Amino acid sequence: MAWQGVLFDLDGTLLDTSDLVIKSFQYTLAPHLGRTIDAEEVYPYFGAPLREGLAAFLPEKVEEMLPVYRRYSQEHFDNLVCLCPGVREGLEELRQAGIKLGIVTSRVRDTTLYGLQLFGLLDFFQAIVTMEDVENHKPGPEPVLRGAELLGLPPAAVLMVGDSPNDIAAARAAGVIAVAAGWSRVPCRRLLEAGPDFWVDSMEELVDLVLGSADIVGKARARGC
């Protein structure tokens, strides 16, 4: 394989922030909606900028809700977030193999850096693209193209790994290989509908895919749930 770089989404792909995101949405929206939304109602906004997610529920209340969401998320980040399984080991293997690594996230830069520093991951990445770095966010191609540019690689030499349909769509639009993270909380069907090139169930499988294991390439082709 000619892949020389891997771009990762952050939330739900490297850091398990699913509970934090869901609870933050629930806390923020409940006073306005008069009910607690279900997790399934939040899944469509995984990988999207926060403003867009909140606007999907109450567009007229976004400016009021943004600080509430951010305050709750900040206060509960440390106790609701953990590393996804095998992340540190997988990143280390890729780095040792000479693979360039980057982050492409719709999260703002300060909390992105905080999360990476909290878990000791910051030094793995040569490129970090956050919400403030682009005008058009996922599912558009701009963030992924910017990530490839910062790695100094053409799109054809890069994989993008993500846990949401927005990640897959952004990768495909940018002309990079789209890899679905099978540990996503998003229903399998929704990820497959986005059309990933590959599906991996673990960081170990991702490492094998990137490094060209024949067995895993056959196994990782996007498949049924």
Summarize the structure.
By secondary structure, the chain is α/β, with parallel strands linked by helices.
Spell out the key features of this protein.
single chain; alpha/beta; Rossmann fold; DNA polymerase, domain 1; six-stranded parallel sheet
Describe the overall structure:
The protein is α/β, with parallel strands linked by helices. It has 2 domains: 5-16 and 82-220, HAD superfamily/HAD-like (Rossmann fold, 3-Layer(aba) Sandwich), CATH 3.40.50; 18-80, Orthogonal Bundle (DNA polymerase, domain 1). It contains 11 helices and 8 strands. It has helices spanning 18-33, 39-42, 50-55, 62-80, 87-96, 109-118, 142-151, 165-174, 188-193, 203-210, 214-220, and strands at 5-8, 15-16, 82-83, 100-104, 127-129, 158-162, 177-181, 198-200. It has a 6-stranded parallel sheet with strand order 5-4-1-6-7-8, with helices on both faces. A two-stranded antiparallel ribbon has the order 2-3. Strand 6, helix 8 and strand 7 form a beta-alpha-beta unit. Helix 5 (87-96) packs parallel to helix 10 and helix 10 (203-210) crosses helix 11 (214-220). The longest helix is centred in the N-terminal third of the chain and has 19 residues, at 62-80. The radius of gyration is 17 Å and the shape is globular.
Sequence-ordered SSE layout with sheet pairings:
Elements: E1 5-8, E2 15-16, H1 18-33, H2 39-42, H3 50-55, H4 62-80, E3 82-83, H5 87-96, E4 100-104, H6 109-118, E5 127-129, H7 142-151, E6 158-162, H8 165-174, E7 177-181, H9 188-193, E8 198-200, H10 203-210, H11 214-220
